[in-house]
Design goal:
GO terms for molecular function: DNA-binding transcription factor activity; sequence-specific DNA binding. This is Transcriptional regulator, AraC family. With 303 residues, the chain is of the alpha+beta class. It folds into two domains: 2-184, Jelly Rolls (Sandwich); 187-302, Homeodomain-like (Arc Repressor Mutant, subunit A, Orthogonal Bundle), CATH 1.10.10.60. It is built from twelve helices and ten strands. It has helices at residues 7-14, 112-115, 134-152, 159-183, 186-205, 208-212, 217-224, 228-239, 243-258, 266-272, 278-289, 293-302; strands spanning 2-4, 24-29, 42-47, 49-59, 63-64, 67-68, 75-79, 85-87, 94-103, 130-131. Strands 2-9-4-7-10 form a five-stranded antiparallel β-sheet. Helix 5 (186-205) crosses helix 9 (243-258) and helix 10 (266-272) crosses helix 11 (278-289). The chain is elongated.
């Protein structure tokens, strides 16, 4: 897989204009302008840059992930360094918007270098992008305009600090808008929870739990066609529980049924549930149920 260590090399590969700054590029197309078109297709590639892009479809229809969205309001998405990128030429669109690309070293020595790692949306897939309302679009556009001014001006000792400050503001607004999107998509959240539970049930019923052990959240998310981070964030907003907690609840429910068979030892139950160490299973069971597996079995047999 081809990897690009510099911003210039990455943009050259995309067939886009060279950057004005060795570690930062801004392609503004606010208003009536259009984004420059990058190469039509690419095999999987990676790079050392962050990307923040806003695209507004002018012509063409597009199914985004598993859902059809109204793209006239625009979509904002984020890409972190080392994420695998791939696209084809199956559809052609004219796009308004902007694209900000900056090398990870551009943030070195700044507070944003640490803050940016906390923004989960850099781990989301493209079909989990942020859909902006017209009001939100204007707010983001004003921030990008400020970044563009500094980018186009002659660089001085204040330029980088101002750009970093504006990038930080943009990400804070994006975080706020994602919170709004999570709250407004309860139907999707419910659907994701149902799909998540269905995937877990199929895993257990097919015998994979005993054979391969407890599945990772990433495995389940891949089966669902979404990113691990987005799945966890969505379920957390809607149910108050993380994907790991939902997985543990299902395992505990399975354990309760298995503990009804007195012929099986606690260790055998643990192993059949995919736990490598029985004592870990016992600790988890007691944490969730308030009593040990042994005590639960005794309590049930008495009742």
């Amino acid at each position: 897989m081809q990897h690009f260590k510099t911003l210039s090399a990455y943009l050259e590969y995309l067939e886009l204009p060279s950057p004005e700054h060795p570690m930062l590029s801004v392609f503004p197309a606010i208003g009536e302008g259009f984004l420059p078109c990058h190469k039509e297709s690419s095999p999987p590639i990676t790079n050392d840059c962050y990307s923040i892009s806003f695209k507004k479809i002018i012509k063409g229809d597009l199914n985004y992930g598993r859902t059809t969205y109204d793209f006239t309001n625009g979509v904002l998405f984020f890409i972190a360094p080392r994420q695998v990128l791939q696209w084809d030429n199956s559809a052609v669109f004219e796009q308004k918007g902007f694209s900000i690309n900056f090398h990870k070293d551009f943030l070195k020595g700044t507070e944003l270098a640490h803050q940016i790692k906390k923004y989960g949306f850099f781990s989301y897939s493209v079909n989990e992008a942020l859909h902006l309302s017209p009001k939100e679009e204007k707010q983001i556009a004003s921030i990008v305009a400020n970044i563009e001014i500094e980018y186009q001006n002659n660089q001085d000792e204040f330029s980088k600090d101002i750009i970093i400050s504006q990038l930080s503001t943009l990400l804070k607004y994006a975080n706020r808008f994602y919170e709004r999107q999570f709250l407004n998509r309860k139907e999707l959240s419910t659907s994701l929870l149902e799909q998540f539970n269905e995937q877990l049930s199929q895993y257990v019923e097919s015998g994979q739990l005993q054979k391969n052990g407890i599945p990772s959240i990433e495995q389940i998310a891949d089966k669902m066609g979404i990113s691990q981070r987005y799945l966890s964030d969505t379920l957390k907003k809607e149910t108050g529980k993380t994907t790991t907690e939902h997985l543990q609840l299902l395992l505990i429910d399975e354990a309760k049924n298995m503990l009804l068979h007195p012929s099986k030892s606690i260790a055998e139950v643990a192993y059949e549930l995919g736990f490598e160490y029985p004592h870990y299973f016992s600790r988890l069971f007691k944490k969730k149920e308030g009593i040990s597996p042994t005590a639960y079995r005794e309590k049930f047999s008495v009742n």
